[in-house]
Amino acid sequence: MKELTTYNRTVQYLNKVFKLINSEYFDNELEMPTITIQSTVGAYGYVTTSKVWKTETGKESYELNIGADYLARPIENIVATLIHEGCHLYAMQNGIKDTSNNGIYHNGRFKKLAEERGLDVERHNKYGWTITHPTDETIRFCIDNDLPEIMVTRNTALTFVGIGTGKNGDGLPVKPVTPKKGNSIKWICPCCGAIVRSTKILNIKCGDCNTAFIIA
Q1: What does the pLDDT look like over 14-37, one tens digit per residue?
Q2: Residue 183 phi, psi (nearest 5)
Q3: Does the predicted TM-score (pTM) go above 0.85?
């Protein structure tokens, strides 16, 4: 496979990986979501609780997003995130209530679904059984399917202002935002959602999660 150094090729690759996961861990029972790559606040990925995409023929699908800021993680971690979100899709399709508090708290049902699919599940005091890690089984899956690393990521050290119409923009250049004197920068832990503020760009980690803060 060619090196994954472009956005479009990475989206195609994630679709391929999800199909492999669907076959390996879900007996091809999952409906294919629309996979996107966007920046996410407080998560490596997410799946919508309703079908937000619709084709001209009327076919609808859930959105499964992989955080653009975290594409440079090892491929087994990307796979673990896809399996994590796949478990949520499986729960929705089968009427399993795997979360509460508007999808924030992951309960024991989610833990069971994730562990049955080879993930290591760790409990967070506030968000429940939401911290999932790849295991040797996940690594084996990556090796067996010859899955290469993703070689592109979004720069988390900068925030951007787009020039254009609405959310779509018009392709004009963007420029980094420099905080005005006296203003603070808001940082958030992508794991637990903890928030801190600073007056300059920092390289800081959450002491509870050992995860780097990102600009919110």
Answers
A1: 999 999 999 999 999 999 999 999
A2: -85, 155
A3: no
